[in-house]
Design brief:
The structure is a single chain. The protein has 473 residues and is an alpha+beta fold. It folds into 3 domains: 23-43 and 311-470, Beta Barrel (Elongation Factor Tu (Ef-tu), domain 3); 52-77 and 270-306, OB fold (Dihydrolipoamide Acetyltransferase, E2P) (Beta Barrel); 89-244, no CATH class. The chain has helices spanning 2-12, 83-137, 141-173, 179-208, 212-269, 300-303, 462-470; strands spanning 23-25, 27-43, 46-50, 55-59, 67-68, 73-77, 271-273, 278-283, 290-291, 304-309, 312-319, 331-336, 339-351, 357-360, 367-377, 389-406, 416-422, 428-438, 442-447, 454-456. Helix 2 runs antiparallel to helix 5 (212-269).
């Protein structure tokens, strides 16, 4: 009876069979290493469309969220204030042109008149100088000879007239001629005597030389001619003033034309168009409202019509632990809550070089710095809108056909260590392994394991279990 009891006790208190180890299987597949964060969709760049002229808005033919093309009409401003200014300025240009034409005509007329006056004065001066030289030089031998010859001819003529008179007188006493013939002959004698006296007088004056009064008179004529010439030259200097008038009128005309062009530009500015293609993010003004000119110092709220965004991006704040993994041009997978059935792609286009703030990561409220990352996002269907929340996965590394092991099967830190593997008999053997890339779930095996190997998952210690239960915060 006692023997049976001992046997029964041994049977009921047999040691339990050991619990088989938890294992994971080494596989082959794709390993993606990523940095995940949430951000907001914002315009990559914004353009405020402002009015360059003040006035009342006639139309704003766009809507928020609408895609517009470069050059598309955004708004029109009433031109009632500009049209009268253009009309007045056109009249000013016409008047300025007429004044310039008149100045040119007067200048050309004065140039001709002063030129003619100078030529006439030069001719008169030359004539007076020639006369003075002639008077001062006295008679030449040829002139004396000519005058002596004139005296001789006058004497011959007087002698001939005397003979005729004597003959007529003898004939009249005998009744052959009339007394009138004698009288005519007497007149001829008197005339010949007068001519002889004049020739003798002229010869005497010539032989006597120039008189001082004649020389002084000739000199006075030269002085008068010189004064006239000087006056003509002085008047010619007025041509420069006329020419200056032309220059001033040309400047006035140019200014008037420039003012007209500026007004015409303002007239064109009453039609406000999109400077580039984009999406209408916000409209600030409605038709019939007054808008101010952005060129005269008014604030944006008074001169801006609308804001356009030409592309979209996601702006995410990455913590300092992960920011070193992020590089420019890395591929990004993007999801938004509002479009849960769609996945979008993007590229990292900017990484802030300095921290923009911090956030609490533990129960002790320690802070970790954050860095702003900008991600350009493709929006082919234009379903995305600014302000949407987006979850981004920045792909920092990717390996195709990698040998993969779950992280829970790697009890060591770093890339080198040992793991337990079940052999064909189910016995645990130790193998050295070298790991490569890793993400939150798996690691790439570079050496030591092959697909299909059964790796023993090490048990979780009480401390590790407590950490897992409590969590990081």
């Amino acid at each position: 009876m006692i023997g049976c009891s001992v046997a029964g006790w041994r049977y009921t208190h047999r040691p339990p069979k050991p619990t088989p180890p938890v294992t994971v299987t080494v596989t082959r597949g794709e390993l993606v290493v990523k940095v995940s964060e949430s951000g907001t969709i914002q315009p990559l760049s914004k353009v405020d469309v402002k009015s360059k002229v003040a006035g009342r808005l006639l139309s704003v033919p766009i809507h928020e969220g609408e895609a517009v093309k470069a050059g598309q009409l955004i708004a029109t401003v009433d031109r009632e204030l500009i049209d009268p200014q253009i009309a007045r300025q056109q009249a000013a240009v016409t008047q300025s042109q007429a004044t310039l034409d008149q100045a040119k005509t007067q200048y050309a007329l004065q140039v001709r008149q002063t030129k003619d006056a100078i030529e006439q004065a030069q001719a008169s001066l030359h004539s007076a100088q020639t006369h003075l030289a002639s008077v001062a030089a006295g008679a030449r031998a040829q002139e004396v000879a000519q005058q002596q010859e004139a005296v001789s001819r006058a004497k011959i003529a007087l002698a001939d007239a005397h003979r005729t008179l004597v003959r007529k007188q003898s004939l009249v006493s005998r009744g052959f001629v009339a007394q009138s013939d004698v009288d005519t002959a007497q007149v001829a004698v008197d005339t010949a005597q007068s001519n002889l006296d004049s020739a003798n007088q002229q010869l005497s004056l010539t032989l006597a030389g120039p008189r001082s009064v004649d020389i002084e008179d000739a000199r006075s004529q030269v002085k008068a001619a010189q004064v006239t010439l000087d006056t003509a030259y002085t008047n010619a200097m007025q041509n420069n003033l006329r020419k200056l008038d032309i220059t001033q009128q040309e400047a006035a005309l140019s200014q008037a034309r420039n003012d007209l062009v500026q007004l015409q530009v303002q007239l064109g500015d009453t039609t406000i168009v999109a400077p580039a293609a984009g999406t209408v993010l916000k409209i600030y003004k409605k038709p019939s409202e007054i808008i101010q000119s952005a060129t005269t110092g008014f604030s944006d709220s008074e001169s801006i019509v609308a804001t356009l965004g030409n592309a979209l991006m996601v702006q995410a704040d990455i913590n300092e632990i992960d920011i070193a993994k992020v590089q420019l041009h890395q591929h990004v997978v993007i999801r938004v809550d509002a479009l849960s059935d769609q996945t979008f792609t993007g590229d990292v286009i900017a990484i802030s070089p300095s921290s923009n703030g911090s956030f609490s990561t533990t129960s002790t409220a320690s802070s970790v710095a954050k860095y702003t990352v900008q991600i350009a996002i493709a929006n082919p269907g234009r379903d995305l809108r600014t302000g949407m929340t987006a979850d981004v996965d920045i792909i920092t590394a990717k390996r195709e056909g990698a040998v993969l092991i779950p992280l829970e099967a790697t009890p060591f830190k770093g890339n080198h260590g040992t793991v337990k593997v079940l052999d064909a008999a189910g016995k645990q053997v130790t193998k050295s392994v070298t790991l490569g890339l890793r993400n939150d779930n798996a690691a790439e095996v570079l050496q030591g394991l092959s697909p299909g190997d059964k790796v023993v998952v090490p048990p979780v210690s009480a401390q590790d279990r407590r950490t897992i239960d409590i969590g990081p915060g």
